[in-house]
Amino acid sequence: MCAAPSAPPARSWDADPILVVDHLSMRFGGLIAVNDVSFRAGRGDVTAVIGPNGAGKTTVFNCITGFYKPTAGRLALNHGGPATAVELDAVTAAGESWTRTGKGAVYLLERLPDHRVASWAKVARTFQNIRLFSGMTVLENLLVAQHMSLSETGLLSPAALLGLPSWQRKQKGAVDRAVYWLEKTHLIQRADDPAGDLSYGDQRRLEIARAMCTGPVLLCLDEPAAGLNPRESAALNELLLSIRAEHATSVLLIEHDMSVVMEISDHVVVLEYGGKIADGTPDEVRHDPRVIASYLGVEDEEEAVAEAAATKALSAEANP
Amino acid sequence: MASADPVDATNPDAVKRTDLAQVPPARRPARREKSVVERAVSEALASGLLTFFVLLPLVGFHATESGTGSLVLDYRFGLVAVFALMVTAGRLVLNLTVWRGDGPRRSAARVPPKSVAEAEAVASPWPRLGAVASALVKPVFFGLAIAYPLIAVTLVGGLGPSRYWIDIGIYILTYVMLGWGLNIVVGLAGLLDLGYVAFYAVGAYTFALLSTSVPINDFLAGHLGEGFWTAWSFWVCLPVSGILAAFWGVILGFPVLRLRGDYLAIVTLAFGEIIRLVLINWVSLTNGGAGIASIPAISFFGIPFSSGEGGFAHMFGLPFDSMHRMIFLYFVILGLAALTALVTVRLRKMPVGRAWEALREDEIACRSLGINTTLTKLTAFAIGAMFGGFAGAFFAVRIRFVSPESFTFMESAVILAIVVLGGMGSQMGVAAAAILLIGGMEMLRNLSFLKNEWLFGPNFDPTLYRMLIFGFAMVAVMVWRPRGLVANRMPTIFLKQRKSVSGSLVKEGHG
């Protein structure tokens, strides 16, 4: 149900989606937080999910990252290339959580436990309220993120217990990767400081670095620019754009800061009251009358409309 | 920022901020530290003097009723002096530790500064001294532990009389090991376990049951010779005890995986009680409350500590002494404790150890990074329990008698107190706390000097006050050092510089 009538013929996210959300619904008792939402996120794209408070954005995120089990719907994540409809239906019917496809693999995220969503399907996320390991150093945070690759040979591998050279090499590789991301996020000077000592903006960037250290194919950012000043916000844009340009990681983000959304996203999905009201390029969405009415607002009334939407909306957003 | 600007460089703040490496700590004036000590001493003396004069009329004169009914005045100036000295010493210690600096309320000083420069600015030579001391603490501590039997024997004069001291050493080291084992579960993984004694019991009973088992003895006697099982049972059963305890750790772990915080604590507590009640009531296996006696004694790797031919003394050409066995037991528990410490140190630097600590910090973030929290928690329970099992087997071979009496909730509470008092996660802290708690409680038995004529008199029974003093000491330590004796966490890896993480940032974990 695309709102823009004159949609361009070839949309990148329809041709090669990394994530296909089909008829996703999430109910908490009698409360319908997400109601039959379908959208696609393109491979290599930055896809933004926007909407007023309580629209169900974080709920969608929690479903994608496995923290909630959706009431209904399918969340298919494609590794390598898009799975065909036949392949997708086959794996869905077979009751399996993932299968190899002609181009790679497809994971049905709603069937995977949360840690498998991260370790198998390679979906990494950040949190609206930052969740760092505050008592551990910045470097340690990034090494914990590489837990899966470091513990391939088993949690209690004798090589690691005895500190054999093979383990040392492996750990060196992990540290190198951490250093790469520390440099990328300009946190290298703070590597040995406790994460809890960093400033708010640094903590936000560290959380992104930590998520990237897991080597994700899809990075889900829950309001990464919240609480950042304009300069930090610009640095964040730069970081996200460089992730998109240099890494095979697609980005899905929830954001209220329109400067971030409009500047870096290739594709915007707008939610309201748990349903999708628009889906398209930033330009299309910006000019969509429904989006303007419900979220972006018109000139002077911008604040008032957003406020009204926020108070009306049922609070469906819950932190995991 | 124009950091190289000479104008900036004259400003100490700018130097501090911009170039830590180029500021030698020696340049900081040493006057401040000296004045701290001076003031501490003078204040301590003043408080001592004040105490003396205040207490002189209150405590110094004591009227007692004599047999004939008239009042008799006693003079207790010695007691007043003791109180005054206690106040002086207490004030001195406090001034040098908690109240160092400008005033008595200096909580800010306890929050470690964020950068090295600030640290050096706050207290000039102390961090240096601290760094040197902390580097030396572990080897010195370990060296002392190794030399302890020698010191005890030399100081007391002779093997026989040193028995009491060696016994205390073994007793303390057992708790050091238990503390280190529980530290994995509580301190690293942040899972509050009130039933740790269950694994201690599992270890002890595993060894007790296997070593006294007649079928095993007969079977092995037939294959490996008479007396084999008596001689070797401990060394064979030690790993078995550990493995079984680890198995029970997993059994406990499964049902409590979903529980957090208080609920977890209550269920683990119940688990500890269940094990104890099973031991009491499964009479056919465990002999119930009567316990299992005549457990074979420890052997020197197959050589018994007996007086006759083929015994340890005979083999090594020494005159027989029953203390040989005690000293060997001391080294066995020292070795086991060292193994626990070593393994924990290694585990902390491995993915699993980091995952434990991450779990303590934030479980949801762990899951978002792909860490299987179920498996991680179970590993923590299993490994913690394994060391508890080792310690249990050692307990059984030392006492040579096990009964459910030894595995009450009080034991769990003491072990947990050691971990909390030591500073959760810190190995040195836990060791220090075990010495303080177990050794201190033991030393409080030796307060007979308080019965001295000029102190409390012969009617005073200090042992009655043992637990009271102990409780006060615990409260005092927790008030002054709420995060335990060693509050800071040492990072497991560093890029350029190892900086300790302030305890205020480290979470306790809640499930």
Short description:
Chain A has 320 residues and is of the alpha/beta class. Chain A has helices at residues 12-15, 57-64, 85-94, 114-119, 138-145, 147-150, 158-162, 165-184, 200-213, 230-246, 258-264, 282-286, 289-296, 302-312; strands spanning 17-28, 31-42, 46-50, 72-79, 98-100, 105-108, 123-125, 218-222, 250-254, 267-272, 275-280.
How would you characterize this protein structure?
Chain B: This is High-affinity branched-chain amino acid ABC transporter permease LivM. Chain B: Residues 40-137 form the High-affinity branched-chain amino acid transport system permease LivHM N-terminal domain. Chain B: It holds the Pfam family BPD_transp_2. The complex is a heterodimer of chains A (320) and B (511). Chain A has 320 residues and is an alpha/beta fold. Chain A has two domains: 13-122 and 218-279, P-loop containing nucleotide triphosphate hydrolases (Rossmann fold, 3-Layer(aba) Sandwich), CATH 3.40.50.300; 131-214, P-loop containing nucleotide triphosphate hydrolases (Rossmann fold, 3-Layer(aba) Sandwich). Chain A contains 14 helices and eleven strands. Chain A has helices at residues 12-15, 57-64, 85-94, 114-119, 138-145, 147-150, 158-162, 165-184, 200-213, 230-246, 258-264, 282-286, 289-296, 302-312, and strands spanning 17-28, 31-42, 46-50, 72-79, 98-100, 105-108, 123-125, 218-222, 250-254, 267-272, 275-280. Chain A has a six-stranded mixed β-sheet with strand order 7-8-9-3-10-11, sandwiched between helices. A five-stranded antiparallel β-sheet of chain A has the order 2-1-4-6-5, sandwiched between helices. In chain A, α8 (165-184) packs across α9. The longest helix of chain A has 20 residues, at 165-184. Chain A is globular, with a radius of gyration of 20 Å. The relative contact order of chain A is 0.18. With 511 residues, chain B is mainly alpha-helical. Chain B folds into two domains: 6-123, no CATH class; 132-446, no CATH class. In chain B, 65% of the residues lie in helices and 3% in strands. Chain B is built from 21 helices and four strands. In chain B, strands 1-2 form a two-stranded antiparallel sheet. A two-stranded antiparallel ribbon of chain B has the order 3-4. In chain B, α8 crosses α19. Chain B is globular, with a radius of gyration of 27 Å. The model of chain B is unreliable at 1-33 and 103-124 (pLDDT under 50). Classes of the chains: A alpha/beta (320), B mainly alpha (511).
